[in-house]
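Sequence, please.
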């Protein structure tokens, strides 16, 4: 019987445009396939062996004749294409209304409340922008005035950028905590602290980013696992995404390399329950920067890491690899893309099967709860047994 689930989210590694992608301006988006085409083909031998090429055509990653993992892809049932919507849906919360966005910047009511509650004498920006571009544009004015830089994107985010020598990181976090309270009535998905350093012409964002998300409106699969006594370890920005709920242990990471190192360490610490990791560099460093070469290199790095991870996956482990949305680095613009996400589920003793196209990411949370025989009423279906009677049935190894 499965005792531990290892859930790896390759942030933004999408698998082709969803049927409603045109509504989001994402017709033709396909993060994996288009990245592969842009670099003349990917070489991902471990993901290929699991069955990644059986999910969709990817140049350089042909289908495996006998894939090691069960494989499929998942459609997002929630509205939107952001990090919180994707992750929340995996754990049982399907949004029927997307988080609001602010294409013209934030209204006077929000900005007025921001200045009043945070003590800011003024602000700079207040518009949608690339984070690297806006600090290049307004960084010098920020240093001269001390005013925080406020900006958004096509996601539901209120971002506050500040030079670490002008507004120290702890103070920036305090500002963002106050901003989170201001943004709650407006359903802003995330408030993000974006510290940077450097001088004019050489401003650089630091790794002290911190997210302040909305709290999930009700219990997720993580909460149910924790309430039933199962360890739940979150690595990377998992704690931020779920506002700290449902975790028994949280580890923050600096980048993909650090995240993979932390996962290796966590395997020796959390020996049952759930280990849940997000690897963010695909999205943050390469997808949003329209860098298919960097994206491909990050996939190569993960694949190499996977070669060392797979031998550590034992009969009592279930390894799940997926994504939360797309961010096609070849697509016009720098935003997330509305895509299917890949799904690979591996255990050395489970006979691989074609899992097909799932209707919702929530099938992951349901499968995890069923695996641990936790009663629930969350939406979704067991990946390996879609009968309603399976809701409390543990996943047995034949």
């Amino acid at each position: 019987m499965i005792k531990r689930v290892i859930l790896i989210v390759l942030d933004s590694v999408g698998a082709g445009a969803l049927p409603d992608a045109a509504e989001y301006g994402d017709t033709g988006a396909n993060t994996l396939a288009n990245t592969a085409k842009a670099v003349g083909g990917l070489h991902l031998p471990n993901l290929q062996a699991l069955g990644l090429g059986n999910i969709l055509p990817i140049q350089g990653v042909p289908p495996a004749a006998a894939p090691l993992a069960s494989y499929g892809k998942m459609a997002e049932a929630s509205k939107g294409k952001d990090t919180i919507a994707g992750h929340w849906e995996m754990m049982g919360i399907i949004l029927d209304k997307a988080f609001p966005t602010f294409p013209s910047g934030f209204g006077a009511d929000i900005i007025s409340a921001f200045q009043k509650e945070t003590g800011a004498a003024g602000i700079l920006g207040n518009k949608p922008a690339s984070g690297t571009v806006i600090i290049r544009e307004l960084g010098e004015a920020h240093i001269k005035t001390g005013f925080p830089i406020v900006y958004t994107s096509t996601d539901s985010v209120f971002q506050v950028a500040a030079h670490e020598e002008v507004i120290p990181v702890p103070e920036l976090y305090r500002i963002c905590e106050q901003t989170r309270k201001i943004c709650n009535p407006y359903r802003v998905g995330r408030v993000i602290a974006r510290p940077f350093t450097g001088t004019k012409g050489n401003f650089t964002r630091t790794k002290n980013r911190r997210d302040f998300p909305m709290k999930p409106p009700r219990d997720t699969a993580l909460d149910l696992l924790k309430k039933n006594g199962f360890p739940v370890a979150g690595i990377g920005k998992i704690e931020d995404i779920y506002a700290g709920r449902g975790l028994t242990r949280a580890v923050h990471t600096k980048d993909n390399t650090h995240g993979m190192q932390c996962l290796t360490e966590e395997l020796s610490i959390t020996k049952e329950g759930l280990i849940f990791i997000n690897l963010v560099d695909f999205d943050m460093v390469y997808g949003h920067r329209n860098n298919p070469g960097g994206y491909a290199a990050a996939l190569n790095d993960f694949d190499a890491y996977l070669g060392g991870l797979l031998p550590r996956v034992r009969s009592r482990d279930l390894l799940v690899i997926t994504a939360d949305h797309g961010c096609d680095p070849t697509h016009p613009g720098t935003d997330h893309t509305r895509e299917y996400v890949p799904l690979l589920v591996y255990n050395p003793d489970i006979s691989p099967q074609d899992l097909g196209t799932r209707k919702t990411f929530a099938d992951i949370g349901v499968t995890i709860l069923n695996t641990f025989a936790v009663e629930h009423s969350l939406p979704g279906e067991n990946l390996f047994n879609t009968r309603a009677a399976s809701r409390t049935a543990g996943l047995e190894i034949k």
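The longest strand covers residues 190-197.
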